[in-house]
């Protein structure tokens, strides 16, 4: 038997099923005897302490500056919130519910409040709350299913969903693959799995089959199938396929030190996307020419207060030191939309995806913005630095940003602090940004196309919704026309074009992107050698022919046929 899913991280995994994130114990909804109320209150308190300590222990295996560390912090903060303890006590004492039922009701209420906002990003957070509630219920009855001792050396995890915080608790050396019922190509879990190099399938409806813990599975992260209780014949076929894939990955290592140039001599600069200093230190093995996207907002997710100028300077200088002269592209804090920053005060918005995010937030919080700009300017005295502004759509936004840069320079001169020269670019993430490029480009040294958000804003489709993945994919006639418009405008102004979204990490799309005229690709480290091999073994003349043909197509299936 086999069930299909969306491949978000390639590879073939052989292992045994382990279900997580599930609460199998039956919940007793009968009212409590009055005499049992104190005992149930104590159960809830002990469960909160137990789960908080468990998550804290999980953090000990993570780098403090990693986004995983901070995501676990978010769960711990919710568990240790006095309001949560008070709500649970109220449900137990006033309504005479058991600790488990009280947890179920309270967490469901919180999740429902988030889901009712009719915002996809907040809906994702509601799933996190539900998952945490289930784990707390399991802790109450002593059957916490998120128990790493259950994991063998060849576990394939099966779950409804897996939040980034939960992903962070997985001992990656003990699992072979991940299969989720939910999620899309650009979901947070997809990006994390790909970065970790773990084969993963999302949007896989495996619960239609009776899969018991311990059942043999084969996750084919190449064809997109999960084989349940595979036959000997299927196992042998996939073992051969796996051996060929391992051999292929080993062969890719020859490209680590090679320049990224096509067979007919066309260079393409390959850079890496990172979210922490730990990520920066690992790019040497991936053969990157530098950092094309440093998501600095992740530095704010695990701290109680915003790092001051000196602290940020040290962070950026540490990154430059790890790069040994390679370029560091620092994106200013991209705050808003789907990113919750505990150390900042963020106002509620009905639709944060269309609200105060990116450069809009920075321009409304000039003290925060100028502190970061001063640190970046000073870091530029110690290496090659590029500065990238997110979500710029209008010339007025860019003009205000430049005024703040000039003010920061004057401040540094008065403070007798040295600073270096930086190249300045913007993230192009909306149709408006592309249409306004003729006015924006004279002020810029480069642009970086953020294909994830550009797809979402162009097609008006939530990129994380699995129901929309097929009909509204990242590659569509509208998207490639917008990319081509941006490239042509940049060529006219002799400005470099980078693309840093998930499209850049998909080897089969590289010929199209390079053929459209992209100068730089900023890629997930795990995909970088695949991308480099595609370029080094390709022909730029053929790439441009393919791109020209793609621009004439009107249907998504026609594009798929051309690219496959």
Write structural notes for this entry:
- It is a single chain.
- By secondary structure, the chain is an alpha/beta fold.
- It is 45% helix and 14% strand.
- It has 21 helices and 16 strands.
- The strands form two sheets. An eight-stranded mixed β-sheet has the order 1-8-7-3-4-5-6-2. Strands 9-10-11-12-13-14-15-16 form an eight-stranded parallel beta barrel, surrounded by four helices.
- Helix 10 links the parallel strand 10 and strand 11.
- Helix 1 runs antiparallel to helix 2, helix 1 packs antiparallel against helix 3 and helix 3 crosses helix 4.
- It is globular and about 80 Å long.
- It starts with a strand and ends with a helix.
Task: Give the arrangement of secondary structure elements.
Blueprint: E1 2-4, E2 6-9, E3 12-19, H1 37-59, H2 67-79, H3 82-95, H4 99-115, H5 120-140, E4 155-159, H6 164-168, E5 175-180, H7 188-196, E6 200-202, E7 216-220, E8 225-228, H8 232-252, E9 269-274, H9 277-281, E10 290-295, H10 309-323, E11 327-331, H11 359-364, H12 366-379, E12 385-389, H13 395-414, E13 423-428, H14 431-435, H15 437-440, E14 446-449, H16 451-459, H17 477-492, E15 496-499, H18 507-516, E16 520-523, H19 528-536, H20 540-550, H21 556-563
Parallel strand pairs: 3-4, 4-5, 5-6, 9-10, 9-16, 10-11, 11-12, 12-13, 13-14, 14-15, 15-16
Antiparallel strand pairs: 1-8, 2-6, 3-7, 7-8
Helix pairs in contact: 1-2, 1-3, 1-5, 3-4, 4-5, 10-12, 12-13, 18-19, 18-20
- DSSP strand content: 5-15%
End-to-end CA span: 26 Å
What structural class do you assign from the helix and strand content?
alpha/beta
Estimated radius of gyration: 25 Å
Sequence of strands across the biggest β-sheet: 1-8-7-3-4-5-6-2
* Tally of strands: 16
- Average the pLDDT over all residues and give the rounded result: 86
Unreliably modeled segments: none
Biggest β-sheet strands, sense, barrel: 8 strands, mixed
Percent range for helical residues? 40-55%
SS field, number of helical segments: 21
| Bulk shape | globular
